Amino acid sequence: MTRTRVLLVDDDVRVGRSLVLALDDEGFAVDVVHTGEDALERAGDPDVDVVLLDLMLPGIDGFTVCRRLRDAGDLPIIMVTARSDSADVITGLEAGADDYVTKPLVAGELAARVRALLRRRRPAPAAPRRVTLGEVELRPDEGVALRAGAPVHLTRTEFRLLSELAAAEGRIVTRDELLSRVWGYEYHGDTRLLDVHVRRLRRKVEADPDRPTVVLTVRGAGYKVGHVPDPDPVPGRAG
To answer: What are 4-38's pLDDT values in tens digits?
Structure first.
């Protein structure tokens, strides 16, 4: 059985060595690079499943690496930051990271984050085959999103988030529920991860992200879609 391959980008050689051993025990294969330049080159290899990216790198920094990887595709990215309360978390997520972990890294927690992130490759949650949300059309079973008829590139996380909201058919989905359903584990009240992804999603699906009509905030409660999708027509019944 082919093991999940993690590309670890960290300029600290000792951290790299310890994580290789720890993640190997968790069942992962780990390749290590120490610069942003090497990360961009190695991440293009088809056998890389997920990138574990330290933000503080010599030369090309981790934020720039993250943005370039995200511009190139939807390779899963988990960023590493030294402080969970720093602006680095927000900046890294805005750059396109799917998730984050803080130092010191704990192998078991990190392995759980990697596995949860890769589970997003599975089909989106049950929903009508085609969901119309204003000028946005979502096809959960195909993994396709369109806006005004043109394809919209969503990361796996963004697509999963929109699919979860669409499956609720206009009902409010709390932040904790979305964190659990999309990211797969508890964040103990840390909603930055979700709120930044909602902002990123709105920039792609809203005509005016500052005045959303597709993904709505329900203050103090959570999020919902702004248009309840019509159910799929029943075969043989007139429209």
So the answer is: 899 999 998 888 888 888 888 989 999 999 999 99
Burial 51-63 (b: 16+ CB within 10 A, else e): bbbbbebeeeebb
List, in order of start, the domains of the chain with CATH numbers: 5-121 (3.40.50.2300), 131-225 (1.10.10.10)
The mean per-residue pLDDT over the stretch 162-189 comes to 85
Residues 6+ apart with CB under 8 A from 190: 84
Residue 152: CB partners within 8 Å, gap ≥ 6?
136, 145, 146, 204, 205
Is 100 in a helix, a strand, or coil? strand
**Cα–Cα distance, 102 to 190 (Å, whole number):** 13
**Of the candidates 186, 81, 82, 170, the residue with the CA atom closest to the CA atom of residue 134:** 170
Number of other residues whose CB lies within 10 A of the CB of residue 2: 7
Instruction: Write out pLDDT tens, residues 113-134.
Output: 888 888 766 555 555 578 888 8
